[in-house]
Design a protein that fits this description.
This protein has 165 residues and is of the alpha+beta class. The protein folds into two domains: 99 residues, no CATH class; 59 residues, no CATH class. It is 42% helix and 13% strand. The strands form two sheets. The chain has a three-stranded antiparallel sheet, with no helix packed on it. The chain has a two-stranded antiparallel ribbon with strand order 1-5. A hairpin with a 5-residue loop joins β3 and β4. The termini are far apart.
Length: 165
Amino acid sequence: MEWNTTWEDPFTSYVKQFAGLIGDQRTGKTFGEIVKGIIAAGSLICQQIAAQSAELSQGKKGSQRVIRLATGESTQRSELDAEHLTKRMREVAVEQLKQAPEDELWLIADSSDLRKPYAEAMPYLMQVRDLDEQLVPGYRSQSADRTDAWTTGLVLSSALEPPGA
């Protein structure tokens, strides 16, 4: 399966919103191919992402390009790191939600890191910040809970109440 895009398709329009973080053409192309690979593979495993990208799968080590971008090794001329990227993703999501009818969709977003301070060896373990801003082992996370307008009050009020209230 090959993914062909036109300039005005939804994918291209979405990816263009991150152009301000990308400092060079190669990083931009790699970023776009990685997003395509994530969508097509339905996975965050680098080999599976690269295998689903027409460009990244052509090279001998396409997954290495994914890894280098994810670790910041190939993005010295860009602000394409976890902090800037997730900040921009939140901004884009808010912009899109502002355009939706009020009763159409409600999301509760959570970008909390999953901290595993005592873990030594787990699959895909990385460094994340704890509550004191110190690096500890763990996982980055982005999740959202969708609900309709009728249940929103219930979900929000239970989320705001302190435990045991």
